[in-house]
Amino acid sequence: MSKDYFLVIRGGVNSTFQDFGRENLYHIGIPFSGAMDKRNYLIANKLAGNLTTDAVIEFAFQGPCLKYFGNKRNIVVTGNVNFKVIKEDYSEIQVKNYKTIEIDNGDVIDILNTKNSVYGYLSSNGGFDINEVWGSYSTTTRAFVGPNGGKKLTENQKIFLKKSEKFSNRLLIYSDTKIEFIRVIEGTNFNYFSEESIKNFFSKDYFVTNLADRMGMRLEGQKLKNLKNTNIRSEGLVKGTIQVPADGNPIILLSDHGTIGGYPKLGVVISADYDRLVQIPPGSKIRFEKVKLKDAENLYKLYNMETNNILNKIL
Amino acid sequence: MIKNIVNLGDASIYCDFGNEVNKKTNSHVIKYFKILQVKKIKGIINITPSYNKLIVTFNLNQINFKDLKKKILNLKIDYTEKPITKKIKIPICCDNEYALDIERLKNKLNMTKKEIITLFLNKTYYCYMTGFIAGMPFLGDINKSIRLNRLETPRVKVPQGSVGLTEQFCNIYTFESPGGWNIVGRTPSKIFDPSNLNTPNLISPGDEVIFYEINKIKYLKFNE
Questions:
Q1: Domain tally for chain B?
Q2: What are A241-270's pLDDT values in tens digits?
Q3: What is the share, in percent, of chain B residues with pLDDT greater than 70?
Q4: pLDDT confidence tier of residue B151, bands split at 50, 70 and 90
Q5: Is the CB of B131 less than 8 angstroms away from the CB of A28?
Q6: A177 found inside a domain
Q7: Which among A25, A293, A304 has CB closest to B65?
Q8: What is the chain B residue with the closest CA to A25?
Q9: A188 vs B8, B132, B174: nearest CB
Q10: Residue B205: which CATH number?
Q11: Which of A28, A233, A255 to mutate to test the interface with B (most CBs of B within 10 A)?
């Protein structure tokens, strides 16, 4: 093991270790968690020369500020992120996302903010020296499950790193594609809502409110009228579920969602659009489009192919 | 018996066991849950039982709705076989400091505290499901005369260990969390322990739970 580490100077808004997510624990109340934007997670690890299943640091809005102690090594940041590296002599290096950079003992990586998006990822060649919990490096802060005691990164803590290997710099020309619509499949309580409400939902703008985090995204727009019942028997939930409480404002459940709930399910966001959904920042508008299951399955295949093509471009 | 089976999004299956919420319906849900856990069908990544539903989440790269639906409907279920479950005793302290909603319960039910607590303790509860927050058990059914709706305005913070009542159910808050159940007391027991890697949750679906009362001194000393 190496003795290389990052000292956390600023934790950032919501910086956690994440990977693919943790399976088979919904039934005891632990959500899947994992990197919110899987594509940017995969790219981060590939660029850093790591396994696709390695842990990364995920951050939201404002990222962490980390001071590095150790031998030269490579790091990379993915997502639409504004960040810089400050050398010990206070000179600043302008750095770019999707490009590996070499850091040296004493360097400070200051991840200032994500631009027109929410999540970004930091990966380091060799990977972080952390332990898996129940088969995953993902952090679920609400249940204190995961590495780092299941907690966010906090000021003054040390993050140890595994030994890094000889490495050549890598670069990917990439920017996230925007999509015009978030596509949705009918939910199990679709027919609870008035015809007019359904029409509004699939034609009017909805806005992401400030109440958005890894658990869910509250939206505002034309209120949805429930004609049947605003509560159902509590039952299992899945990520991407659009549930509508009595106030008529939809909530989209995201990766750290509660595993059981009793609000009617209007729809579920398709798997192909999830990465792009979570990157829509508060204040932005969303428009929804209804699709059939078969289309959703095909769109997912396409999205996956596209992701693999991007990863294959990285040599 | 599964009454209806549909997709929930493109990566989950929603099995409906009917509208009734009782031990019998739920025991069927749990049967399917346990069989699927053992079968380990490729692609399944989560199985969530609840009162009368079972949701199976899968990896869309490995299986799809149509194929998994077939596999679930083809499962052979032996309804006569008794499930392996546990009986668990949970201490509860009903001191007024912890029984946050005892006044509301007394007023709405028109009963004394002693009557309410006695009826609550005098029953073996069945665990229908766990979840919402990690390890939270949904237990039932409570005595008909102590059933009440949720608080009109939920609490922003319900303390960890609080035991709450709503309708025919009671639950235990495994973490401090927002919530609207009527709190009758607090347990010092660790219902969910993330540091216990093998069995973090004390109570699993299908288990039976009995509460026994402890006084405040015992409550405070319980974890020493």
A1: 2
A2: 999 998 999 999 999 999 998 899 999 999
A3: 100
A4: confident
A5: yes
A6: no
A7: A293
A8: B46
A9: B8
A10: 2.40.100.10
A11: A28
β-partners of residue A290 are A184
Quick one: angle between helices B113-121 and B102-109, nearest 10? 100
Provide the Cα torsion B68, B73, B77, B83; round to 10°: 50
Distance CA B123, CA B144 (A): 12
Contact B46 A24 (CB under 8 A): yes
Give me A255's structure tokens.
């990766």
Of B73, B97, B128, which marks where a domain is finished?
B73
Residues in a beta bridge with B127:
B139
Full domain range(s) for residue A288: 182-312
Cβ contact, residue pair A271, B60, below 8 Å? yes
> What value, to the nearest 5°, has the Cα angle with vertex B180 and ends B52 and B134?
60
Chain B residues closer than 8 Å to A32 by CB: 45-46, 57
Residues A238 and A151 in one domain: no
Residues A141-164: what's their mean pLDDT?
95
What's CA A124's distance to the chain center, in Å? 18
> Is the bond preceding A19 in cis, omega lying within 30 degrees of 0?
no
Q: Which two tokens stand for residue B193?
A: 């322990």
